[in-house]
TrEMBL record:
Any Gene Ontology biological process: iron ion transport
Biased composition regions of type Low complexity, renumbered to the chain: 11-20
GO CC annotations, alphabetized: cell outer membrane
Protein name, as recorded: Vibriobactin receptor
Keywords attached to this entry: Cell outer membrane, Ion transport, Iron, Iron transport, Membrane, Receptor, TonB box, Transmembrane, Transmembrane beta strand, Transport
The gene coding this protein: viuA
SUPFAM superfamilies: Porins
UniProt-annotated location(s): Cell outer membrane
Family per similarity comment: Belongs to the TonB-dependent receptor family.
Length: 660
């Protein structure tokens, strides 16, 4: 387990540990990469939780991103399905899900990127999010639009995979557990030309059975089957004849199949999603001088997803084929006096989708096109040795087109948005590991169009909604105390939304996305890490949250999945030289599942506890883990009626990793 900044970070086995005055204890300083600038956690004002490989290995049963999200305060992850995690009470899915989102083109508020490529909504909701061979995972809470651009107004998850090495490296992993869980994974990295050319290949396949006990039907076969496959190949080139030049080519493939959700509702045969994507990522870096670096990131992706339903019942298949192209050149600079540094970059993104909605006896073609062009910059200036000012800005122009063939579901949407997203941060640093600061930043989620329906007459009609903006204000602190044995972190925030996008049902029964004038969230994330002895580390983090918005009837309501209190407690104990015992207990307060605050869709507070014991040896590690240790069966989401999602049942399993 491991969390940082507004949480905790283990300091047990990282190769970059720094030895303190007490030689029996080690600590390490967390470095973050996700804001495009590599820097210490003490130089980072964002509320971010950081997991490196050792932290992930120490987290009980952690094999995919969801396992880390469930440990993070002020995040609610309701499990597999349409609903992405909510962050600080803001739904990461965007304003709509399911069929409404499919017709209008999904616009999530949560940005999940792997090696610089932002995943589409369907990939985040239903695709694989493997942690195998990841160098680091970073979870950002709060608007990240000025950094990530589109689709990041709630937060961002940044994954960075390991690069090839010039030393031979290989490892394999096998894991089994309850619910027919299995994981088979391998990685190999080796030089091709000494100190100039190397490659890395990794593959991971995870399988399990759904705990919802779904009924089999054709053509999907067993809808309980959940299978995720990730494969990645990397080539690293650093030619001796061109000092300072580095380029990496990555080919990544992801494939998954699984039910649309794991809710307990069983009256209708459950739809199954199949998603696939193949990406080519080309990164270039060149040190022009001691103070100037040029970088470029170029990505092309082909992706598909199919929603498969029962043709003998209520057939509602959805098939999508799309592609994406992105290029992002940037220049980093540092002054010789080291009091001024920053970056300037450009970004161009485009995507095209061809979709088909199929019902019994009919099909409805759709198409979508997105274009986004942006220029961004960030400058850090050391006003005096202890005061640092960071100014950043992003200008973005985004064009969206969505066309649904005329008829019952007809839609023709074509709009362009222009937005400037500034950030200003001032930090006081009396010491390198003591920071107090304030920051303000603007976030953005683009508007769109869709096809709504009336739940009384079942008539369909098209609609549009406007861009959403948010001003984020934060006070943050970072403190390392007791000779680096105790770390304390704080982020206190206030988010003020303009034209907040929300899915509402009018008094006449119209269900559609609309903008509300007034919405806000405020709260805090508090974290601590205490290396009590050379063998024991204790961790605690706390999330406080208050949300409110006014609907069109001028009634104040809470946002959905916005508990006022969340907390996480953990420990890592090393004993008998080669053994590790780790565990965590995580609390989520009560909340509503819907923005209407329906009493029959409220969720009671719940706990979940996880534990793991591992034996670590020179050439590997063996682990025995238990997730949901006490087999809690509390509800996590209520769609209404008997359509309820509960906590995943207890899973006991084991894994073996071998290094060669």
């Amino acid at each position: 387990m491991g969390l940082s900044v507004s949480g905790q970070a283990f300091a047990a086995t990282n190769n970059n540990n720094e030895t303190t005055a007490n030689e029996d204890k080690t600590t390490f300083e967390v470095t973050v990469y996700g804001e495009k600038i590599e820097r210490s956690i003490y130089d980072t004002g964002s509320s971010v939780h950081v997991y490196d490989e050792d932290r992930i290995a120490s987290t009980p049963g952690a094999s995919e991103v969801d396992d880390l999200l469930q440990l993070t305060p002020n995040i609610v992850d309701s499990g597999q399905g349409n609903n992405l995690p909510s962050i600080r009470g803001v739904d990461g899915s965007g304003p709509s899900i399911g069929g409404l989102a499919a017709f209008g083109g999904s616009v999530p508020r949560l940005n999940l990127s792997i090696d610089g490529r932002s995943l589409s909504y369907s990939e985040v909701a239903f695709g694989p999010r493997s942690l195998w061979d990841m160098q680091q995972a970073e979870i950002y809470l709060g608007p990240q639009s000025y950094v990530q651009g589109r689709n990041a107004s709630a937060g961002a998850i940044v994954l960075k995979s390991n690069d090839p090495t010039y030393d031979f490296e290989s490892k394999v992993k096998a894991a089994i557990g309850q619910q027919d869980y299995s994981q088979t994974a391998a990685v190999i990295s080796a030089p091709i030309l000494e100190d100039q050319l190397a490659f890395r290949l990794s593959v991971d396949q995870q399988k399990r059975s759904s705990y919802a006990d779904l009924t089999a039907y054709e053509p999907v076969g067993d809808p309980n089957r959940i299978e995720m496959t990730t494969a990645r190949g990397k080539f690293l080139l650093e030619p001796a004849g061109l000092p300072g030049f580095k380029t990496t080519l990555t080919i990544a493939h992801m494939d998954t199949v699984g039910p649309q959700s794991e809710s307990q509702q069983t009256k209708i045969n459950r739809a199954v999603y199949e998603t696939q994507s193949t990406s080519g990522i080309w990164d270039v870096s060149y040190d022009i001088s001691d103070t100037l670096v040029f970088e470029n990131n170029l990505i092309y992706t082909d992706r598909t997803y199919d929603r498969i339903t029962d043709p003998a019942g209520r057939k509602q298949d959805f098939k999508s084929k799309g592609n994406e192209f992105q290029i992002e050149p940037l220049v980093r600079f540092d002054s010789l006096s080291e009091d001024l540094s920053g970056l300037f970059g450009l970004r161009y993104f485009k995507s095209e989708d061809d979709d088909v909605f199929e019902q019994t006896g009919s099909s409805i073609p759709m198409e979508g096109k997105n274009r986004a062009m942006s220029a961004f910059a960030e400058v850090t200036y050391l006003v005096m040795p202890s005061i640092e000012v960071v100014a950043a800005g992003r200008f973005e122009r985004e064009s969206k087109k969505r066309y649904v063939a005329p008829g019952r579901f007809g839609l023709d949407y074509d709009e362009t948005s222009n937005v400037f997203l500034p950030k200003l941060e001032v930090a006081y640093k009396p010491e390198s590991d003591q920071t107090v600061g304030i920051r303000a930043a603007k976030g953005f989620n683009s508007g769109g169009g869709g096809v709504g329906f009336n739940n009384k007459t079942w008539a369909f009609s098209s609609y549009t909604y406007e861009d959403e903006y948010v001003w984020n204000y934060e006070f943050f602190t970072r403190h390392s105390l007791l000779d680096n044995e105790l770390e304390l972190t704080t982020n206190v925030f206030y988010n003020d939304y303009d034209n907040f996008q929300v899915l509402e049902t009018s008094s006449k029964g119209d269900v559609k996305v609309d903008n509300v004038d007034e919405a806000y969230t405020y709260g805090a994330e508090l974290g601590s890490r205490w290396l009590t002895t050379s063998n024991l580390e204790l961790l605690a983090s706390l999330g406080l949250l208050k949300t409110s918005y006014k609907d069109h009837a001028n009634s104040s309501k809470e946002l959905a999945r916005a508990p006022s209190l969340t907390a996480s407690f953990g420990a890592l104990y090393m004993f008998a030289e080669n053994f590790e015992l780790s565990g965590n207990a995580n609390y989520t307060g009560d909340y509503f599942s819907d923005v209407e605050n329906s009493a029959n869709q409220s969720i009671d507070a719940y706990w979940v506890a996880n534990a793991q014991v591992a034996y670590v040896f020179t050439n590997g590690r063996m682990s025995l883990f238990a997730t949901n240790l006490f087999d809690s069966e509390k509800e996590t989401f209520n769609f209404g009626g008997d359509d309820i999602t509960k906590q995943a049942p207890r899973q006991i399993g084991g894994s073996v990793e071998l290094y060669f």
